[in-house]
């Protein structure tokens, strides 16, 4: 991974904000059906909140209460990401509500968003059947190009019939729409989806749509018509009801008190030409690269990709965390391309074509947000599942942890064997998450009959091992309960320059059948450290503080592959295929081993990258040539450390790639 020196576009700077995303799906239920779901969820919320006051929610009681509210029996063991209704998932899983609907000539749409109307907005659209189209709808739908059924057909054709994320919507400042149009006409005319700005004065909108990507080389090949970028100018004096798009009728929406707001953070594309898309965004919007993830950072076995985060320049300067949380003016667009003929990005491009891989939303308290999502899935049977993160990511009990307590080799072996015999630890050192002091003490009766200081220290070491890797990053900033909440909900954690990043990724959404590629969602929390100026005043919060998870980027990539292998294990067991089951388990072992070996290297790279940036920033403000030279020399030292780490990752990647090739050929 490397920081990228921004090459400023000579074009005038434009003002951007995240605005909305539009998805195309096979079907939608009638809005009254969704509103009935919302009513049941609101009735259930008080029961859940009371149960959630305990450290761990009583899922059984919550499920019984849900069944009483709805009359529906729930079997959480049957939950699978494929074949689900995205709207129902959002209503149950994260507590969002339908705030608007459109019934047009040949499409139906709903707008779903969280409790803060300035946050994330999903417009979810399907083709209409004749029975859903009233005479009024036919009249109201006329002239609304953004709800045209032809666009839905075009999207499905470009994406080999798959559902997905079709439109990225950005709000621009008054007057900027003409500038965007002029730049596309001059430099990228093939990408114009419409030759002129569409005017909707009665609703307070002006819209311009362009295609996001080329099919091949920029400016030479034709436009890929699968994904659209929509630019919007809003007259908020007219659009006083804050509708998302022209033609959307507001719906009454009632949120329960467990619902938390969410805001756009970044939207990620899988493309054939990363450099081409980067150049197009720079030419037309003035976006510049911020961070590069090279192949060594994002490799899982044989699968390799490269990724660049591009975006606009920060607009907001604030020292207030609450303002940074809700800001939508910092736009980040990570862009991936595949370097190998295996792996998630390659298969996404092969099955779906170029398009939006996932969308990331920012929340204030990610552990609580995801705990709610997991609880609701278990209690209601609806919502989201999340990627499987190996427990080794968080920590395991090693012999060295016990040897540090001055225990002999024989005693260490006796303790670890006893923990395994009592079912408190597996052979890899992964300790039972909800282990108790009494359970450990019983296992330690093999070496001591009383709770001495030594026994208490062993108990502490065993319990600490459940989150030992996280503790190395965060130290005493979190309580044990907070650490366990992160581990229990499989949240990823990274730290960069004192800033923290929490991340988690859902299973696939809008997926018809298991094992098909499909988009997914990401939720994050940025915890920005307070940095001071020389005079003691607070520095403005850095946009994107905590970065994009250098350690987590690889973990995501590996976890996608681990999740696939875990599903393959399940399928093999169901089919009684012992050979396939063995193969999948060996794949899991290889990916997990790569993750364990890569983590300390990634931490080294992250630390060096942070220091390099700090030294370069200080050098740019140095008061003398000698001070500047000294700081630049220190930055160069960190750059060399960073490069060393990247070289180590390349070696690590090649090693596990070779192991995977041997496994596949066996």
The oligomeric state is: single chain
Task: Report the average pLDDT across residues.
Answer: 88
Query: Helix fraction?
Result: 40-55%
Q: Based on Cα principal axes, name the global outline.
A: globular
Helix run count: 19
The separation of the N and C termini measures 34 Å
Strand content: 15-25%
Broad structural category: alpha+beta
- Outline the biggest β-sheet: 10 strands, mixed
* Contiguous uncertain segments of 5+ residues: 5-10, 136-141
Indicate the radius of gyration in whole angstroms: 26 Å
- By DSSP, the count of extended strands is 19
Structural overview:
With 666 residues, this protein is of the alpha+beta class. It has 19 helices and 19 strands. It has helices at 31-51, 59-70, 86-93, 135-141, 149-158, 176-187, 274-285, 321-326, 344-351, 366-380, 399-403, 409-421, 437-443, 453-464, 468-474, 480-488, 550-575, 578-620, 625-665, and strands at residues 2-3, 16-24, 97-103, 107-113, 122-127, 164-172, 198-200, 205-214, 223-234, 249-250, 263-270, 288-293, 299-300, 303-311, 332-338, 355-362, 492-496, 499-508, 520-527. Strands 1, 11, 12, 13, 14, 15, 16, 17, 18 and 19 form a ten-stranded mixed beta sheet that branches. A nine-stranded mixed beta sheet has the order 7-8-9-6-2-5-4-3-10, with helices on both faces. Helix 1 packs parallel to helix 3 (86-93) and helix 6 (176-187) packs across helix 7.
